[in-house]
Amino acid sequence: MSSVAGLVLPPPPAPSAHSLIGVRLGRYVITRELARGGMGVVYEAVHEHIGHRAAVKVLSSSLSKEGKAVDYAGRFHDEARAVNIVQHPGIVKIFDFGSLPDGTVYIMMEYLEGESLWDRHMRAVQRQGQRIPLADVLRLSRLIASALAAAHEKRILHRDLKPENVILVRDPDVPGGERTKVLDFGIARFMDSAQRRTVAGMVMGTAVYMAPEQCCGVDQLDGKVDVYALGVMMYELLAGRPPFEGEPHKIMVMHVNQQPQPLRELVPDLPEPVHMLVHGMLVKKPDERPSMADVVARIQQIEAALGLGGGFAPHVSSPHGATASLQQLALPRRPYVNTSTERVKLSSARIGRRLPLWAALAGLSLIAFLVTLWASSNRSAAPAAPARQESLSGSPAPAAPPAVAPVETPAPAVNQERPKSSRHKSKQSSKRRRARHR
Q1: What is the pLDDT of residues 302-337, one digit of tens each?
Q2: Active site includes 119?
Q3: Residue 358: helix, strand or coil by DSSP?
Q4: Do 156 and 296 lie in a common domain?
Q5: Is residue 167 part of a domain?
Q6: Structural domains counted in the chain
Q7: Which of residues 110, 142, 174 is at a domain's end?
Q8: What backbone phi and psi angles, to 5 degrees, belong to 330?
């Protein structure tokens, strides 16, 4: 099944009366219709010479004829600009923007083969109520957060993040063998631009994933709206359902006024750091949520602590031992903690645990030094005795000196001539004997 531009409606619908199949866009020829959505239709196009496949998203004919057609066309243009400003491998590439002879605008983007995150989630739910494994949820969420952190760095908001707008494609160079592609920046906002496609108080987005400030129609938004949406997605993937369900207007009221059910009640075996991270992303006040870059760092810490390494790993079904080892990584009961500060606290705690061992070693070293000093003073005062090794109680015996091979020394030369003193004594004895004979 092919998924393109976030519009996944298999099987592809039959061409309508306004079908563009066969239309030429430069060197590309539209070959088939792939999907339809609220704002447009997505086609497959193939380069007539080299066979390169592309996806063409065309503004729907009905919107092209409305009085706000200029605004809708502007959103297509904003989408093309946004993804090319960010230039991140986790965001779909758009390489052309133009208009048909009748003035209908289109964007041409890379053709993606894969499945949406929503399809992956639904397949897991339909298998006897199963869920995507924890390791995969963390890995995919980290990749999504990384792409959006790059967008936020360029002062661009997505504002419509949801599982349908994330495509999973094969990529052998990425841990886990697949990469996420974030799509549909159609209602993206440039935070540094004074131009607005929506008026103050106008609400746009998908109710299930909208942040409280979005639901209230606040005009001054920042990257925290995408953090909230990703938190809803993680909650849904882990629990099997979103935090709030119902009619769109009721869901929006709950986003503003109601706290979500704690994840630990729905997933008892969920590691505490994951629970705290997700709920920290769902805090009502945007200033108390982490930034998207901090979400990336936190997920990396959790993956490392769980030994997941950013790749596929079995679902942690009984993490009691892992939870105990994660106490230093668990977020305190507040929405957000700076990761660098948390690392410092973790290091200090580990040092504290090692202090008793250090004290014991230092005490043994001091005792051994005093004993050695006392023994050396006694040896200097007492007569020399044959050396022997002694093992002191409570301290290790000194190591034996290394064996040294005996070195043969030449025997001293022997003087065959008698010493001079001996000859002198012989002469004196001879004189005394001659004197007695006389």
Answers
A1: 999 999 865 433 333 333 333 323 333 333 332 222
A2: no
A3: helix
A4: yes
A5: yes
A6: 2
A7: 110
A8: -65, 135
